[in-house]
Amino acid sequence: MKKIILFLLISSFSFAQNANRKFESYKVVQNTLEIKTSDGQYFIKPYSDKIVETTFLPIGEKLNSNSHAVVLTPAKADFKVKQTQNEITYSSNGITVSVIKSPFQISYLYKNKPLISEKNGYVRRENSSKEQPKETLEFNLDGTEALYGAGARALGMNRRGNRLELYNQADYGYGTHSKKMNFSIPLVMSSKIYAVHFDNGAIGYLDLDSKKDNSLVYETISGRKTYQVIAGDSWVDLTSNYTGFTGRQPLVPRWVLGNFSSRFGYHTQEEVTKTIDKYIKDEIPVDAIILDLYWFGKTVQGTMGNLDWDKENFSDPKKMITDLNNKGVKTVLITEPFILTTSSKWQEAVDKKVLATDNAGNPFKYDFYFGNTGLVDVFKPEGKTWFWNIYKDLINQGVGGWWGDLGEPEVFPSAAFTAQGKADEVHNIYGHTWAKMIHEGYKNDFPNVRPFILMRAGYSGSQSYGMIPWSGDVSRSWEGLQSQPEIALQMGMQGMAYMHSDLGGFAGDYFDNELYVRWLQYGVFQPVYRPHAQEDVPSEPVYKDILTKARAKKQIELRYQMLPYNYTLAFENNKEGLPLMRPLFFDEPTNVKLLNSCDSYLWGNDFLVTPITKAGVTNTTVYFPKSNNWYDFYTGVKHEGGATGNVAVSADNILVFVRGGAFIPMIKTIQNTTKYSLANFDLHFYFDEKATSSTGKLYNDDGQTPNAFEKGAYEILNFSSNSTAKVITLKMNTTVGKSFTSTDKNVTLLVHNISAKPTKVTLNGANVEFKMNANTLEIPVVLKKGLDNEIKIQL
């Protein structure tokens, strides 16, 4: 890739560009404010009263309205234009765009609070004849705001002060620091609770005030000069607005929240069968097995692109998959977009013209680690059809999900061409477009299946195609573990709520059972539970020593017990775009001490989690958000909100606390999600005198039908609490979709933190028997469909 020269703010040329930009006229056309200047036109288009898009079109260029990220249709927002002698305002009840005529400048406000403003706006700078011109958009920042975004990086939560390349690229064996990773997103989020999204897929840079002059600069080689400013009333509102704009994650199939068996890799059909049988024998829950590249070749090098079974080592794959399905285990296959010249599909790919080309139109061939290769042109209709038909044939054999690897693409020389442009223009949207191809293929050919699409590279809005991202080839080390919460939290804020890591770590032969167990403990409270590693040290708990296996088993069992809570989080993400993992500043946005914090985080709304990411830790400090009191998930010990405490650490679990007033639905351990049922479940209520009222819910459907909620094929169990000094009142009822058959449920209600035996407990006015176990009250409740239940606890 050619280097892009950093935009020099002191350049007289840059100031001349802005100084020469003169306001000429304006008009409103179909709710878009069009401003004519001396060097081009601005198009300012509202999407809602919280989202506005600005495009600059230089003189001589044609308007390109094609966005790879935006899915929202502009609403007919009530924006009004006002003009004074030197200012035009285009405003709604939310966002206001202020245009100063001389000197020309555009500023953005939300509910009269300044958000951000253009500094020099759009600038084009010609470089030497050997380098492409550089285009920049430059903005003013205030001196205090923390900045987040730019995709997957390991830099510290507040990324201000960094100049970050927008170029998807693997970072093999990274640890605590990684400035450039597989997933670039041209998005900046501010602690002032707004975001700026640069709607252009070409490679470039995001400069987050690296010169410490309060500047934000987006730099690119070509493409749209379009950005959106997105505002919010809270962090939850901002992330919801952004994901509403770029697309919401489809609800995952329930089995995706279970345990995966995965390694690099399973060499034979017999090895696959043996591994799953060990899980079943050891009664360790498992829902899927992932086959790395040996399914299509005996060797790592020279076979990529075969994309068909190696029949010597997988003699009857259809039977293998059928047998696994009968055991409740899905088969997931790795695929890559590289077709090696030594692969069985090379000539077919050449003949059908499905590969990226050179400037003469011939297949572009180049060498990388796996061999001499071409790359499938997923932007070309013929390439998409050819590639999808391979997936379609394997799905018809019973394959349950897909792992799309190396989709940055890992190596993609700048000299290559695709149907949508040069390599550098489409590099960052390659994985995004690949995921879209699979997503749309399922929608057309398998409309009753929720896809599983695991990929490590994508772009803004990749969540709308169901992409499940992971954090790449992380070092199998404590340093590798330490970076994972930050990566997942940042990506969740940016829409990619299922960002997760290879549990246990991937790269290297470092052997440490304490590290392995701590990583799996963290895995319970992050989006996808998928241990994975190189072959040197097995990733599967069934191949560990007795003690390590037992500890890992307890974590996997807890993961399954939490399925009702976790599936409800997945539903909330699908409907509202909320991250599963959330930074503590979501709870306390004005607490400046939390703006760079990722040592602890929220799992959904109701769990506070502090992973243990260093060896030999026996105690650590934890900050408890001030909104509630918090209760140790394992011991029940109470911690006051708004305080920092030193907490003892057990080898058996990481630190997990439950928000006072929370409802936590749980089930008993099951072998896999085919056994999932809410016919009997536990509902934990964490009574807290500080939380006098609270609500909760539990979402349920069949776990596999696409758009079940929209089809009315669902039920939602609603919970609420109100408490006084003498009475706790709990209510339960069920909302049932028009196409769902609900059944009665036996609920064991467990009310925690009851200091003395109640004098009386009633259910719908009638006395009921109850049990006391230490400080926990146990009440049996039959939740009948369509009926409300009211439990009163007399203290």
What does this structure look like?
By secondary structure, this protein is an alpha+beta fold. The chain is 18% helix and 30% strand. It has 13 helices and 47 strands. Helix 6 (381-396) packs across helix 8 (430-445) and helix 11 (513-524) runs parallel beside helix 12. The longest helix is centred in the middle third of the chain and has 16 residues, at 381-396. It is globular. Mean pLDDT is 95; it is low at 1-17.
What's the SSE blueprint?
Layout: H1 12-19, E1 23-29, E2 32-37, E3 40-48, E4 51-58, E5 80-83, E6 87-91, E7 95-100, E8 105-110, E9 113-125, E10 134-140, E11 147-149, E12 163-166, E13 187-190, E14 194-198, E15 204-208, E16 215-220, E17 226-231, H2 235-246, E18 260-262, H3 269-281, E19 288-291, H4 317-326, E20 330-335, E21 338-340, H5 346-351, E22 366-368, E23 371-375, H6 381-396, E24 401-404, E25 417-418, E26 421-422, H7 423-426, H8 430-445, E27 453-455, E28 467-469, H9 478-482, H10 484-493, H11 513-524, H12 546-561, H13 563-576, E29 581-582, E30 601-603, E31 607-610, E32 619-624, E33 630-632, E34 638-639, E35 643-648, E36 655-659, E37 663-666, E38 680-686, E39 693-700, E40 715-723, E41 727-736, E42 745-752, E43 760-763, E44 766-767, E45 771-773, E46 776-783, E47 789-794
Parallel strand pairs: 18-19, 19-20, 20-24, 24-27, 27-28, 38-42
Antiparallel strand pairs: 1-2, 2-3, 3-4, 4-17, 5-6, 6-7, 7-8, 8-9, 9-10, 10-16, 11-13, 12-15, 13-14, 14-17, 15-16, 21-23, 22-23, 25-26, 29-30, 30-31, 31-36, 32-35, 33-34, 33-36, 37-38, 39-40, 40-41, 41-47, 42-46, 43-44, 43-47, 45-46
Helix pairs in contact: 6-8, 11-12
